Hints:
Blueprint: H1 3-21, E1 30-34, E2 39-44, E3 49-54, E4 57-66, E5 69-74, E6 81-84, E7 93-96, E8 106-110
Antiparallel strand pairs: 1-2, 1-8, 2-3, 3-4, 4-5, 5-6, 7-8
Amino acid sequence: MDTPTKSILFGAASALFLASASYASPAGQAFEVTGAEASHTLFFDAEGGYTKQTDEGAKVGAWTLEDEVLCLIPADDPEPRCGGWVDLEVGESTISTEWSRDGSEVTILRIE
């Protein structure tokens, strides 16, 4: 195999590896989170902020994503809540126990 062909194959393999190793962020996405007793909607902006909309009103905070761990830092509480990030398509959902305060199951549905 000649050098140009090796370079092309190496470049293609590297691009494939990087694409499979990357993951999307929640920026620009919205999720409906439903538990046994309550539900809310989370809207994530591209600047690292989020809005949590409940029946009682809205709360805001900041978010970070590192090594597939999403952390939410509420503006009124300096203690972050962190859990695994699952990249969902619009209409897809997942069930998690990481995001409820008592360890009960919540359904997370991507709506936007």
